[in-house]
Amino acid sequence: MIRPSRGFTLVEVLVALAITAIALVAGLKATAALTSNSERQGHALLAQICAENQLVALRLARQLPGVGDSTIECVQANLALQVQLSVRPTPNPNFRRIDTAVTDGGVQILRLSTIIGRN
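Structure (tokenized):
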């Protein structure tokens, strides 16, 4: 009498290992995407803080800023960002348009615009 064999064949084990490997790779890719997104969100938040700080400083100066461009270094959480301010005239001479672009190593992270009036 021949006994039926117990256990799995080599092909079945290899298929199970391949399915497990594919699931693990997909999980690693999802984790990497979440980590990258979290880092990008953190940089965007720090960039917004830098841009808003510069705009608040212009408002607190209580005078109409001069027309022109300038770049300011802003360090937040040990991340050195560059804030580029662009002050442009408007049709009404009592107001100025201010565009801020925050970059990290030449890569733009955030852009904000506002209007500041004469106080």
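Helices lie at 10-60. The radius of gyration is 28 Å.
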